[in-house]
C-alpha cells in the first residue's frame, strides 16, 4: 500500500486505528477451541467485527511462531483474510546481516514464495544499514523501525545521550532517514512516551509513526495526537488486548467492536480538530 492510499483510507474511515492480532490460545473463548484452527476462527471474527473501524491490522508474529507449523498456517490464513483496503503489519522485529535480512523480507513480503504479502514489517535497527535496506528494496512495502518503544526497558538504551546531547533514538532516526524516505519508512513510538513525540517530530516531521501502547499499556491517545499528529495524520495507533480480549465469552467479537468503535470515535474527533477531515 502506498502512502497516498493509506492517507485516503484514514480520511475515508475517519480512523487511524490499528487492531493488533496477538492471538493467544489461553485467552480466546473456550467454545472456539474445538474448531479446526481456533486462532484463525478468532482472528476472522475479530476482523469481520472491526474492518470498517480500522485502517490497519498488526499480528505479532511471536503469537504464531510459538505454535510451529500450525501457527504459521494460521498466520497465512489470517493475512489472506485481511481486507485489501487495510494496511497489514507483520510485527516481527527482524533485522540481521544483509543477505539474511533479504530472506526475512522475502518471508514477509513476497507472497509468491512464502504465501505472505504483508505491506510492512517492524525492524530492530541495532545491526545498522545493511540489516534495514533489504526491506526497502520492495516496491510499495514498508520498514517500520523501532525508535522509542513503549516498554519500561526502552530507557535502558534509547535515552542515552551523546556528547551533542542527542538521545540514541534521535540518532537512530537521523541515520535511518538517510536510507529510505517517507514512502517506505515508518517509526515505532510508544504511546506511553507522551512528550517524547515532540522530539520524534523534530527528527521525523513527515513520517508515519506506528504507535502501540494505548489500552492495556495505559498510553494516552490524546497526548499522542497532541504531540505526534502531523498534517497527513501521520499516526497508526495500535491497540491489541484492549480490543481483542474485551470479552472471553461468546460475545467477544461484539465487545471487540465496541472497544474499537470507542477508539475510532476519539480518533474522528482528533482528525476533525486537526482539520484533516471535515
Ligand atoms: O514499543 C512497542 C513495540 C511493539 N509493541 C507491540 O504492540 C502490541 C501492543 O499490544 P497491547 O496489548 O495493546 O499492549 C504488542 O504486539 C507488542 O508486542 C509494543 O507494545 N510496544
From TrEMBL:
Keyword match Lyase: yes
One Pfam family matching this protein: OMPdecase
Keywords assigned by UniProt, alphabetized: Decarboxylase, Lyase, Pyrimidine biosynthesis
E.C. number(s) listed in UniProt: 4.1.1.23
Domain Orotidine 5'-phosphate decarboxylase: 16-256
Family: Belongs to the OMP decarboxylase family. Type 2 subfamily.
Name of this protein: Orotidine-5'-phosphate decarboxylase
Amino acid at each position: 500500500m502506498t502512502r497516498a492510499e493509506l492517507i485516503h483510507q484514514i480520511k475515508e474511515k475517519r480512523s487511524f486505528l490499528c487492531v493488533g492480532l496477538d492471538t493467544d490460545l489461553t485467552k480466546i473463548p473456550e467454545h472456539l477451541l474445538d474448531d479446526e484452527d481456533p486462532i484463525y476462527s478468532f482472528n476472522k471474527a475479530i476482523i469481520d467485527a472491526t474492518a470498517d473501524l480500522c485502517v490497519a491490522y498488526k499480528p505479532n508474529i511471536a503469537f504464531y511462531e510459538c505454535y510451529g507449523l500450525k501457527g504459521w498456517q494460521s498466520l497465512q490464513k489470517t493475512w489472506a483474510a485481511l481486507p485489501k483496503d487495510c494496511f497489514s503489519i507483520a510485527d516481527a522485529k527482524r533485522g540481521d546481516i544483509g543477505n539474511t535480512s533479504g530472506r526475512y523480507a522475502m518471508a514477509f513480503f513476497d507472497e509468491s514464495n512464502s504465501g505472505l504479502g504483508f505491506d510492512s514489517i517492524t525492524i530492530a535497527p541495532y545491526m545498522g544499514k545493511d540489516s534495514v535496506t533489504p526491506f526497502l528494496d520492495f516496491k510499495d512495502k514498508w520498514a517500520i523501525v523501532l525508535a522509542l518503544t513503549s516498554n519500561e526497558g526502552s530507557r535502558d538504551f534509547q535515552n542515552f545521550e551523546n556528547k551533542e546531547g542527542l538521545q540514541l533514538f534521535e540518532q537512530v532516526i537521523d541515520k535511518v532517514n538517510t536510507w529510505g524516505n517517507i514512502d517506505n519508512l515508518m517509526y515505532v513510538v510508544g504511546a506511553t512516551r507522551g512528550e517524547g513525540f515532540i522530539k520524534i517530530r523534530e527528527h521525523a516531521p513527515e513520517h508515519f509513526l506506528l504507535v502501540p501502547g494505548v489500552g492495556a499499556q495505559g498510553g494516552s491517545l490524546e497526548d499522542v495526537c497532541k504531540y505526534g499528529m502531523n498534517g497527513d495524520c501521520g499516526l497508526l495507533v495500535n491497540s491489541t488486548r484492549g480490543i481483542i480480549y474485551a470479552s472471553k465469552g461468546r460475545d467477544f467479537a461484539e465487545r471487540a467492536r465496541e472497544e474499537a468503535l470507542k477508539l475510532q470515535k476519539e480518533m474522528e474527533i482528533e482528525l476533525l480538530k486537526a482539520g484533516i477531515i471535515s
